């Protein structure tokens, strides 16, 4: 694991791509610490981190987010006006 000084000297910031109603795609390798302290490690070039918490492979996305209905885009939008 890198310390704070090593991160400060990194030539490129780590890129995280946020997908609407989907995962965050993080350039790897990466460690994710879950709320119970479990550390998940991915050494892949890029990994999708689950933001919906429906993944059976949490914290990694397993595409379960695709099964949920689209989020309301604004107040009253889903009220059948
Ligand atoms: S974001 Fe894909 S399963 Fe949660």
From TrEMBL:
- Quick one: where's region Disordered? 1-22, 61-81
The Iron-binding zinc finger CDGSH type domain covers 27-71
**Gene Ontology CC, one term:** cytoplasm
This entry's Gene Ontology molecular function terms read: 2 iron, 2 sulfur cluster binding; metal ion binding
What keywords are assigned to this protein? 2Fe-2S, Iron, Iron-sulfur, Metal-binding
Q: Which SMART domains match?
A: ZnF_CDGSH
This protein is called Iron-binding zinc finger CDGSH type domain-containing protein
**Organism placement in taxonomy:** Bacteria, Bacillati, Actinomycetota, Actinomycetes, Kitasatosporales
């Amino acid at each position: 694991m890198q310390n704070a000084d090593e991160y400060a000297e990194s030539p490129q910031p780590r890129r995280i791509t946020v997908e609407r109603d989907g995962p965050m795609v993080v350039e790897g390798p990466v460690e994710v610490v879950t709320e119970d302290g479990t550390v998940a490690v991915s050494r892949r070039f890029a990994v999708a981190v689950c933001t919906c918490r429906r993944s059976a492979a949490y914290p990694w996305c397993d595409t379960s987010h695709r099964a949920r209905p689209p989020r309301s885009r604004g107040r009253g939008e889903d009220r059948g006006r």
